[in-house]
Structure formats: structure tokens, C-alpha cells
Write a structure and sequence with these properties.
The chain is an all-alpha fold. Helices cover 64% and strands 0% of the residues. The protein has 9 helices and no strands. The protein starts with a helix and ends with a helix. The chain has one domain: dinb family like domain (Four Helix Bundle (Hemerythrin (Met), subunit A), Up-down Bundle), CATH 1.20.120.450.
Length: 165
């Protein structure tokens, strides 16, 4: 694996592990509870949103795949979650997509990673690597949101879970 790819793969491995840890004590009902007094996203919506962008990244990397998450999690606001997959299904999808994304990035050369984006990235990134890096940040950002929702639910902070407290 190219050194430039190693950092991206490591980041997705880290966030994937933290995500799994952050939901292990939650029920489907907990995961579908919306934040901000019922007007914000839920943990389930957030995981679906992250799955959508993992598929998007695979597409950027040239993997032909359909995106079953786009309709509910791309530009669609959170709902009560009745039509969302279960927490276990969302977590399984996230883990599978993480593995596929890591494998795809691992196979890329430095030249491929530093190649111009076909078009531009979501925030006008110019290179494939920059887009992957943005989405790694995006995932970590949403893990913070999951942590805030956990606290609203009266659960331990993610940092406490990770440290085994």
C-alpha cells in the first residue's frame, strides 16, 4: 500500500471502530430518537448519511455500485426513522462499506490518489486524495454529533466508552 493511502485507510479504520463502540449499548429506538427535541438528526440517520457518502467515495474511486442510501440520507432531512434499516443493518452496511473503501484506497497508486477529481469535490476539492481526506473529516465530525446525541439520551460519552469507563 502506498504511504499516502495508509493514512486514509487508518483514519477509516479508526472511525469505524469508534462508531461500532458508540452504538453497542443502544437499541433501535435509541438510535432513531431525534436530537434537538425531535427536530434534528438521529444516530440512525447519521449512520445512514455516512453510508451514503461511503458509497459516493467508492463511486469517485471508480467502483460501480448503486447507492441505496441516497434517497433517505443524502439531502433528505431526518424523519422518525420508521423506514430506516435497523441499527444492526446500518452498522453492518457501514462496516462492509468501510472494508470496501479501505480495499479500494489500498489498491490505488500515489498518482491515482493525487489525480484531479473528475469535476470537483463537494467543497471544491481538486484531487481525489483531498476528497477522501474531506470525507474522513466529515465522518469524524458526525461521530461528534453521535456523541452529543448519546449524551442527550443519558448515555456515556464516546470517550468514556473508548477508554472502557
Amino acid at each position: 500500500m502506498e504511504p499516502i493511502a495508509r493514512s486514509i485507510v487508518a483514519q477509516y479504520g479508526l472511525t469505524g471502530g469508534i462508531l461500532a463502540t458508540s452504538v453497542r449499548d443502544l437499541s433501535d429506538g435509541d438510535a432513531k430518537t431525534r436530537s434537538r427535541a425531535g427536530s434534528g438528526p438521529s444516530i440512525a440517520w447519521t449512520i445512514g448519511h455516512l453510508c451514503h457518502y461511503k458509497v459516493t467515495m467508492l463511486q469517485v474511486l471508480g467502483r460501480t455500485t448503486t447507492n441505496p442510501f441516497a434517497a433517505s440520507f443524502e439531502h433528505t432531512a431526518a424523519t422518525d426513522g420508521a423506514s430506516y434499516p435497523t441499527l444492526a443493518e446500518l452498522l453492518g452496511s457501514s462496516s462492509t462499506l468501510n472494508s470496501e473503501l479501505s480495499a479500494a484506497v489500498s489498491e490505488m497508486s500515489t498518482a491515482q490518489l493525487e489525480a484531479p477529481m473528475p469535476g470537483s469535490g463537494p467543497h471544491d476539492e481538486k484531487k481525489v486524495f483531498d476528497t477522501l481526506l474531506f470525507f474522513a473529516w466529515h465522518e469524524a465530525y458526525h461521530l461528534g454529533g453521535i456523541g452529543a446525541i448519546r449524551k442527550d439520551l443519558g448515555r456515556k460519552a464516546i470517550s468514556e466508552l473508548v477508554r472502557g469507563q
